[in-house]
Amino acid sequence: MTTDAFFAKIRTYAALSEAAERAWTALLRPRHYRKDDIFIRAGDVPTSCAFVVEGLFYQHYVGPDGDLIVKYFFPENRIAASVSATLLGEPSLFTITAIEDSTVLEYDFAAFRALAATFPDIAAFYIRYMERHWIIEKEPGEISFRHDDAMKRYRDFIRREPELHRRLKQHHIAAWLGITPESLSRLRRAIAYGRMERG
To answer: Cyclic nucleotide-binding domain: from which residue to which, for each copy (predicted)?
Structure first.
């Protein structure tokens, strides 16, 4: 992805001046991650964010019983970050790992925040991105996790993210739903059977 294409995506959140684009461009570092490479490791203090140009990452941790628990997926055009740890300068509670071979544009978060303090248009992007992806999108999911059963959460996920659903392995989806891969297989069979019944 050229920086032109990157900023075309950024401008879907807020218009940027040429000066703001030049300043942000100076921070961008292209990097490649192979499948299973780690971007942020739990216990480390993260300092960078990564705009996903191509590929897919996931944010995860190991539960008290040793089970994989997935909190979030970062496909193309999302910014991979351990947000609270980066904001607070504290060790991350989560690991962020590449699910696929991936290309990103990384930038130092402290330098980016300095730009946001200098350029109101970058600040507007920052606010709108955080509002959309870390509040508007995440809150309903957190409520659903507490109140909806796994079947409803799975159906909603397929409806909202059909392309992402096709790309993910069964164990990643199961770990996000909070169920075992065997339970996910049963959900899939039930959905397939329901379609056959309607057909």
So the answer is: 31-117
The tens digit of pLDDT for each residue in 156-178 reads 999 999 999 999 999 999 999 99
Residue type, 111: A
Q: Say if residue 107 is in the same domain as residue 147.
A: no
Return the ∠ at Cα 153 (arms to 79 and 133), rounded to 5°.
20
Tell me the per-residue pLDDT of 18-38, one tens digit each, with 9 for 90 and over: 999 999 999 999 999 999 999
Among 94, 112, 93, CA closest to 51: 112
**Which pTM value belongs to this model?**
0.90
Q: How many domains does the chain have?
A: 2
Q: What are phi and psi of 182, to 5 degrees?
A: -65, -40
Burial of residue 164 (CB within 10 Å: 0-12, 13-18, 19+) is middle
Q: What is the signed CA dihedral for 182, 188, 189, 190, rounded to 10 degrees?
A: 110
